[in-house]
Amino acid sequence: MEKNKDEQIGLMDAISIGIGGMVGGGIFAVLGLASDLAKGGTPVAFLFAGLIALLTSYSYAKLSRAYPDKGGTVKFINKGFGISVFSGGVNNLLWISYIVMLALYASAFGSYAPNLFSLTGNEFVDSHIYATAIVLIASAINYYSVVIVGKIESIAVFIKLVILIGFVGVGFYGLQSSTHLDQLSLNHWESPISLVAAGMIIFVAYEGFELIANAAPNITNPSKNIKRAYFGSVIFVITLYILIAIITVGSLSFDQVKDAKDYVLAEAAKPMLGQIGFTIITIAALISTFSAINASLYGGSRVSYELSEDDELPHQLTYQFWNKPIGLAITSITTIILVNVLDLESISTSGSVGFLFVFACVNYVGYKNRKEIKGRGSISLIGAILCVIALVTLIINQYKDHLSNILIAIGIIVFCFIIELTYKRVLDK
């Protein structure tokens, strides 16, 4: 069947989908967290996380070429493990991880917005009001028109990339006169395990490349362009994140990073451009997090719809509510609850644990189905092993000082499988 010309996606458009998915709210939300944890080794932490994303993108490229489907990751998991309690649990985790990401983006929006306009004079209260309000606004837009969501994404991707690339250009010029450049030296790096753990906590900043999988059926010249889209977008974002990390650590003292952890990228613009720079980056953060919330609400509701169609969740999730899948309302409400209950580090940890688990499974599917997808099983196997090692490292590191974060993350995984097991048992009766 021939593709509708209006629905065809060229190489640059596909790369834009990957870049837009990664450079959403993640870098604005987790940069301060990474800098606080890894200190001078922050660029290395972003490199570690990026390498795992790059290896995983290989499996995604091969699976997207062999099984092009708008269901993306959901379909890959089902191809590898069949329709079972395990595949259902993993796919449920994917949906919940989308919700966790939404909470992360909303939390970032809530952290940056009070710097432009305070509502109550209390930063904590303001951040929660803004975080809740932006989810409600994005939900309303999703209910009104998916076309509007797409237009917002196109404009937002352009604006945030122009601003971030401009930040990098001005930032490197400003580093020449910085008094904090020595913080990037080896003696200011945390231990190797801490660097890996820091990279894994902020792994959520890379997960967006998987959105290319949902667009795979419409990508032109798929035999070449699918692979190029994944690798091109991931390599570009790795480079961008490392450069931003270098500028941030080289421009601010560690105390300044800690004090402005939730909006550190805006703070890093101050030494170079003063309050104007701070305001520009803050506006970029608000645009980016808003667009990420907009797109992720749509993506999350699609995941729940796909799961329901495959009988991995109740078929009622295919029903319409205000002319949209009911999963959109559930995703919105759950996001609002999470962003008002959990702190930034708990949200980031839970999101990273969820996506590392899912990506380990996708890499394993790439290895298991290597002959069918004509892939190099060794690359997918290495990707799966590294995801597992990264996951274990993250759990061990967080267990020492942040046990509650790990308990929340593991609790989410267990909950996803319990829900699936319970549903399958009810179906069998």
Write a structural description.
This protein is an all-alpha fold. It has a single domain, classed as Amino acid/polyamine transporter I (Up-down Bundle). The protein is about 75% helix and about 0% strand. It contains 18 helices and two strands. The protein has helices at about 10-20, 25-40, 40-65, 75-80, 85-110, 125-145, 145-175, 190-200, 210-215, 220-250, 255-260, 265-270, 270-310, 325-340, 345-370, 370-375, 375-400, 405-429; strands at about 320, 325. It has a two-stranded antiparallel sheet. About 55% of the residues are buried.
In the predicted model, the low-confidence regions spanning at least 5 consecutive residues are none
Strand order of the largest sheet: 1-2
Q: CATH architecture, please?
A: Up-down Bundle
* CATH topology grouping: Amino acid/polyamine transporter I
User: Multimeric state of these chains?
Assistant: single chain
How many discrete domains? Answer: 1
Distance between the termini: 40 Å
The H-level CATH homologous superfamily, spelled out, is Amino acid/polyamine transporter I
Helix content: over 70%
Q: Total helix count?
A: 18
Mean pLDDT over the residues:
88
Class by helix and strand content? Answer: mainly alpha
Percentage of residues in DSSP E strands: under 5%
Order of helix and strand elements from N to C terminus: HHHHHHHHHHHHHEEHHHHH
Major sheet details: 2 strands, antiparallel
Radius of gyration: 20 Å
Secondary structure layout:
Blueprint (H helix, E strand, L loop, with lengths): L10 H12 L3 H13 L3 H25 L6 H9 L3 H28 L10 H22 L1 H30 L16 H10 L9 H5 L6 H30 L2 H6 L4 H5 L1 H40 L10 E2 L2 E2 H16 L2 H25 L1 H4 L3 H25 L1 H26 L1
Antiparallel strand pairs: 1-2
